[in-house]
Design goal:
It contains three helices and no strands. The chain is mainly alpha-helical. It has a domain of 45 residues. Helix 2 packs antiparallel against helix 3. The protein is globular and about 35 Å long. Keywords: Membrane, Transmembrane, Transmembrane helix.
Length: 74
């Protein structure tokens, strides 16, 4: 059986995310990923405030993380 690599490699996620966050920090709101990640963070914070088990800071980080992941691996 032949070993083939998958279409996208999840083991490159951390370096990709690090590079994306660095470029977002340098370019600010001009970077195309900044606004979707901020919207995801806001949605996560609101959801964390509404849910009884999760606090808003956890929701904020989770929302931003999900939005960043969706930008890197659509």
């Amino acid at each position: 059986m032949e070993d083939r690599e998958p279409g996208h490699q999840d083991h490159d996620l951390i370096p990709d995310a690090t590079e994306e966050v660095k470029s977002m920090a340098k370019q600010g709101l001009d970077h195309p990923s900044t606004k979707p990640v901020l919207v995801g963070a806001a949605i996560g914070a609101v959801a964390g405030g509404i849910l009884p088990v999760v606090t808003w800071p956890i929701g904020l980080v989770a929302g931003a993380g999900i939005a960043l992941y969706k930008r890197l691996r659509p």
